[in-house]
Amino acid sequence: MHEAGVSTSTHDAIVVGAGFAGLYALHRLRNLGLATIVLERGDGIGGTWFWNRYPGARCDVESLQYSYSFSDDLQQEWNWSERFASQSEILRYINYVADRFDLRRDIDLNTSVIRAHYDDASGLWDVASAEGHAYRARYLVFATGCLSVPIEPEISGLDRFEGRILRTSNWPKEDINFTGKRVAVIGTGSSGIQCTPVIAEQADHLFVLQRTPNYSVPGRNQPMDPNFERDWKANYPAHRAAALATRSNNLFDAGTVPGRQVSFEEREREFERRWQTGGLGFVYAYPDMTSDPEVNKHATDFVHRKISEKIGNPEIAAKLIPTEYPIGGRRLCVDNGYYETFNRDNVTLVDLRTDPLLGVTRNGFRTERGEHAIDMLVLATGFDAFTGALSRIDVRGRNGLTLNEKWVDGPANYLGICISGFPNMFMITGPGSPSVLSNVVLAIEHHVNWITDCVAHARARLARVIEAKSDAEEEWVNKVAALAQGTLISKTKSWYTGANVAGKTNRYFLYMGGIPAYVRELRQAGPDNDYPGLTLT
Ligand code: N01
Description:
Pfam families: FMO-like. The protein has 16 helices and 20 strands.
């Protein structure tokens, strides 16, 4: 694959992506003694938190949990200023980590990987960037993220719009001033729900174009309480261990008594308590929240009522209430004043189900009921999740097999980490792992630890090639599919199931057995059993 005149830099390992995953992979691989290079398409590090810098962007997992656990010194010395950290604070944290562990010297920014070909003869990977650079290494680690490839929505006339188009997934670095502007936001997932209240405060007028309403609970973000932070830090290992015992590796104050076993009134009190506390803990009130129809219906009705109470106009409330699916089918959103925004005089909800979008014009947008002039258009239209990044790179394994050919019927792999036919190649939080159903920073650590242990084990055995066995892969694919059967998530259209991308529906992208079971799987698949699902040669 080498092109004449292009010099190749050689390394032991190449990591693609410099977000949470790529940075920790670099740290661990380097500590193994491997000369490692990270290739990052952005002009800065941070991945998701580098690109998604839209107004209102913040994490909806609590700061003290959404952070690396691998270094206790790091855990102790970093101070979070809010219960839920803003995008800018998380990006500062990531940059601090990069300096703290001297990572920058092995990161090539502005480097978009477009090709990765395995050479059967040498057992090495040849990697090329769009900028014309070539790299070679034995190990290739994709740290390319689950939500890193935005979807360009199919809306006619977008290219004719003469105002400014902004994308939440690739927000400009400079401050955007909405004062005096007429703005439209398309998309009401987490990104749209977070930016809407902030833009509404500045804009002359804001149109929110909603196709499918989502469930959102109040975030009740607040400044970090120093006593809470001190206590948490004093017991960090215990908190991390307790989180690891939960399905999502997150301490959401998960209830253990099934909702079916308690009275309606008691459930009502518990929902109210969690609603007042704020955050994603609402869906963890009862272990059967999404599996028992009665409990699920109660929670769904409860949120419907809450939305109605918040909105002054019953017609607008009815449009904001999701009716096509119950709570828990899609990713729950966490907001800071989203519903209240629709009580403002300068905000119009455009329900695209009853008033379809016909297209964007030179100066605005047109629905069946009429045309509205706007100066700015914000696209918060989601991502080609899980497989989007890898499917856009020309990845070829043994005998030139492309990854897209291999994955034509779905992303077959082993543990969400390795792929049969693609030796010495690893994914961090790949499809078929718990990834976004868990605290992603910790899910990343699990994968990086497993991968680096595996590489160390292979090197100690003088094995040069690590490859998933095809029968182990098949067993894993079947397990992931079986765990998903009958779940609310698998029955609901969303990016979780690929339903937001044409031709991608109803694939099983997520391991739904919960973190404790997944961690057991990783252990059983590891050194104690001599990596039974891998061939080491
Ligand atoms: O994307 P989404 P997102 N015309 O796919 C609409 C994480 N995240 O970026 O539902 C009109 O959820 C689409 O409508 P529909 C989090 O895991 C976390 O908001 O397909 N509308 C939908 O409303 C989250 O779940 C945080 O009918 C169109 C929206 O665009 C995930 O990222 C913050 C359209 C896309 O919503 C993705 O969230 C932000 C069209 N042609 C994100 N095409 C936090 O931690 C699409 N839509 C807080």
